[in-house]
Amino acid sequence: MNAIADMPSSASTTAAATNGQAPLIEVRDLRKRFGDVEVLRGVDLEIARSEVVCIIGPSGSGKSTLLRCLAALETYDQGAVRIEGELLGYSERNGKRVRASQGEINRVRRNVGMVFQQFNLWPHMTALGNVMEALLRVRHLSRDEARRRANAMLDTVGLAHKGDAYPAKLSGGQQQRVAIARALAMEPHIMLFDEPTSALDPELVGEVLQVMKQLARDGMTMAVVTHEMGFAAQVADKVMFIDQGRIAVQGAPREVFHDTGQPRLRQFLQNYFDRNAFWARGPDDAPTP
Ligand SMILES: Nc1ncnc2c1ncn2[C@@H]1O[C@H](COP(=O)(O)OP(=O)(O)OP(=O)(O)O)[C@@H](O)[C@H]1O
Ligand SMILES: [Mg+2]
Questions:
Q1: Residue identifier of the C-alpha nearest atom 18 of ligand 1
Q2: 13-42: b or e for each residue (b if 16 or more CB lie within 10 Å)?
Q3: CA of 60 to the centre of ligand 1 (A)
Q4: What is the pLDDT, as a whole number, of residue 92?
Q5: Distance (Å, rounded) from C-alpha 193 to C-alpha 257?
Q6: CA–centroid distance, residue 63 to ligand 2 (Å)
Q7: Is the CB of 63 under 6 A from ligand 1?
Q8: Residue-by-residue DSSP string for 107-176
Q9: Ligand 1, atom 1: nearest CA belongs to which residue?
Q10: pLDDT digits (tens, 9 = 90+) for 180-235
C-alpha cells in the first residue's frame, strides 16, 4: 500500500495556496436524493484554478452524481454549487431561491466541460465532425472557423491524422481522445472526467491518461473521478475520498494514500491493491500512465 504513496506528486504547492483567487468551483452542503435515498449527504468542496482534484471512492458512493451536479446534468435539492462565483441551477430572487431557467443554467455552466466513461460520439459523424458539432450549433462559429479549431483540438490529443475517421474505425482510446478534443474545443475553464479510462482495454488506458496529464501540465483545472491511483498520485493536487455521499477524507495524495486512520478508506485502498497486486512490488515497477 505504501508503494503508491512514495510515488512523485505534483502537490508541493496547491493552486489554491498560490494564486489567492476565489475557487473556480465551490460546493457547500450539497444534497441530492433519488426517491427515498439521499445519495449526496452534504458535500463541501472547493476547486481552485489550475487545480487537479481526483475523486475516488466505492461504487455507488455518489461520485458520478456529484460530477453531474457540477455540470448541471442533474439537479440538486439543497446546498449550493457555485461556478466562478455564480450559483448554478437556482436564482435568488427577493431572498428566495427559485429554479433557474435552462438558458440561465446553460450560461453559468458554459465553461464546464465533461468527459464520460462512454465516449458518446455521434457514430454518423467523423472525428472532425464530432468536434465541430457543438462549435457550429452552440457557439455558432462559421464552418471554416469551427474546422480550424476542431483540427487544432484533434492535434492537441494527438489525432490530427484521424479527422476523417468515423468512430467505428477508431480504437476506444482514440474515441475517448476525440471526446476530450470535443470538450476542449468549447474552451472550458474546468474539465470534469467521470472514469474516462474504465471502459478501455488496459493497453489503451495510457494514451488517454497521457493526454490528461498534458492538460494538467498546461494548467487546466480538472476534477477526475478515477480508479487510476497511479494517475491520482502523480497528477492530483488533491485527492477526495467519497463514502456514502460524503467526502470522508481529502488532502494531498501522499496524505490520503497514507491515511490509515479512516477505516473505509483503508479498506477501499486495500481492496484496490489486492486487485492490483503488482503495485505492491514498488514504484519502480509501477506502470507509467
Ligand atoms: N438517476 C438515478 N435514479 C435513481 N438512483 C440513482 C440515479 N443515479 C444514481 N442513482 C443511485 O445513486 C447512488 C450513487 O450513484 P453514482 O452513480 O453517483 O455512484 P458512483 O460513485 O459514481 O458509482 P460507480 O463507481 O459505480 O460509478 C447509487 O446508489 C445509484 O444507484
Ligand atoms: Mg460513477
A1: 62
A2: ebbbeeeeeebbbbbeebbbeeeeebbbee
A3: 5
A4: 83
A5: 21
A6: 5
A7: yes
A8: HHTTTEEEE-SS----TTS-HHHHHHHHHHHTS---HHHHHHHHHHHHHHTT-GGGTT--GGGS-HHHHH
A9: 34
A10: 999 999 999 999 999 999 999 999 999 999 999 999 999 999 999 999 999 999 99
Ligand 1, residue 65: give the atom nearest the CA.
Answer: 18
Long-range contacts of 79-82 (CB under 8 A, 24+ apart): 79/27, 79/28, 79/29, 79/30, 79/31, 79/42, 79/43, 80/26, 80/27, 80/28, 80/29, 80/30, 81/25, 81/26, 81/27, 81/30, 82/23, 82/25, 82/26, 82/27, 82/28
Mean pLDDT calculated for residue range 4-19: 39
Task: Establish whether residue 36 lines the binding site of ligand 1, counting it when its CB lies within 6 angstroms of any ligand atom.
Answer: no
Residues in the 5 Å CB sphere of ion ligand 2: 63-64
For a ligand 1 pocket test, name from 31, 38, 64, 243 the mutation site with the most ligand atoms within 8 angstroms of its C-beta. 64
Q: How far apart are CA 241 and CA 246, in angstroms?
A: 8
Residue 133 contacts residue 127 (beta carbons within 8 Å):
no
Does the Cβ of 32 fall within 6 Å of ligand 1?
A: no
Asked if residue 39 has its Cβ within 6 Å of ligand 1, the reply is: yes
Task: Identify the sign of the CA torsion 249, 255, 256, 260.
Answer: negative
